[in-house]
Write a structure and sequence with these properties.
mainly alpha, 3 helices, elongated
């Protein structure tokens, strides 16, 4: 299995975890401004998840360096989203206590 495929699978799995996290987090928020922001975040995460799943199938990206660079950027983007959701979750838990 090539490094590009491994990075694509790991990136997609990370983003799917982020989507699951934001959906779980949304269930604990009653609404209001935070609820609206989470709805927007959930839509963005869903779009990113779809993008990460589609990336390995884009045949036009034949240059190895371009593909590797793009996959690394996507991986770091997925990690950023997971970190952001974790931060929001901590803020909500702190406000609830």
């Amino acid at each position: 299995m090539s490094l590009i495929i491994i990075l694509s699978v790991f990136s997609a799995a990370t983003m799917l975890y982020a989507l699951w996290s934001v959906i779980t987090l949304k269930k604990n928020v009653p609404g209001g401004l935070i609820g609206k922001k989470l709805n927007g975040l959930m839509i963005l995460v869903a779009l990113f998840a779809i993008s990460y799943i589609i990336v390995p199938f884009l045949g036009q990206l034949s240059q190895a360096t371009l593909s590797l660079s793009m996959n690394l950027i996507l991986l770091f983007g997925a990690i950023y989203v997971v970190a952001t959701i974790s931060l929001i979750k901590r803020i909500i838990q702190t406000l609830a206590d």
